[in-house]
């Protein structure tokens, strides 16, 4: 009997017990997969002339186009470089935008003529604004050939490109009449350039300014009020025809070249005037944050 009991105890001790099932606590969230952004194959067309000089000391300007090979009615971007730069300095971000479904027109524009604009009664300024207007008109006119939607156009500028781009974005087509009146009243400056794509509108649907100086030309307020009325973006805010322009201002918190207060003040004025405007601050200096800029441009059309 003893041996039978011992055998039974040994058998019980050696039995394999089932392992407990691990149950996650109810508060543990299920992992969510982040969707991979869609990217598209792209093609580029380089050095396309979009202006015709009207004065002997004015040069024709060219642009590059980056577009998805699939034609689908993509939004448009007209990109303006900063002072002392060129369109090829922004090849990488232009390609990245196109890969995400945007048709990008990256302009070469006469940035250095701004510095002589005040000394020559606005001649350099007129050349710049006529050139930028031609870039917008060219983008709208040629958009269908690249699979773009001419009714969705964002002007994106960096530094000085953001400053002069803002004036164009909020003045639309009005400066042309103002330049004519200035030329008639003060004898200068005459037209500097005309557009390859004549006709159409220079208005934009959205504006993205990166590290922009939006108070440029304020010294002209007393010296040359008619010129100041054309080039200063603050003057053009509040026109009900342009209140539908969506605005995103990006500025680095460590920008020592153009203080962030420039974007803060401009955003405050835009918001007060009734625009859909938002200031996005980023940890960085005077530069274009490529992923953030791309993200903000894409959000405009979502």
Sequence-ordered SSE layout with sheet pairings:
Blueprint: H1 2-13, E1 42-49, E2 51-53, E3 62-68, E4 74-80, H2 91-99, E5 103-107, H3 123-142, E6 148-158, H4 160-171, H5 174-186, E7 193-195, E8 206-210, H6 220-223, H7 225-231, E9 246-252, H8 261-273, E10 276-282, H9 290-299
Parallel strand pairs: 4-5, 4-6, 6-8, 8-9, 9-10
Antiparallel strand pairs: 1-3, 2-7, 3-5
How does this model look, in words?
The radius of gyration is 28 Å and the shape is globular. Helices cover 33% and strands 21% of the residues. An eight-stranded mixed β-sheet has the order 1-3-5-4-6-8-9-10, with helices on both faces. Strands 2-7 form a two-stranded antiparallel ribbon. The protein has a single domain, classed as 3-Layer(aba) Sandwich (Rossmann fold), CATH 3.40.50.1820. It has helices at 2-13, 91-99, 123-142, 160-171, 174-186, 220-223, 225-231, 261-273, 290-299; strands at residues 42-49, 51-53, 62-68, 74-80, 103-107, 148-158, 193-195, 206-210, 246-252, 276-282. The chain has 302 residues and is an alpha/beta fold.
Question: Briefly, what is this?
Answer:
With 302 residues, this protein is of the alpha/beta class. Helix content is 33%, strand content 21%.
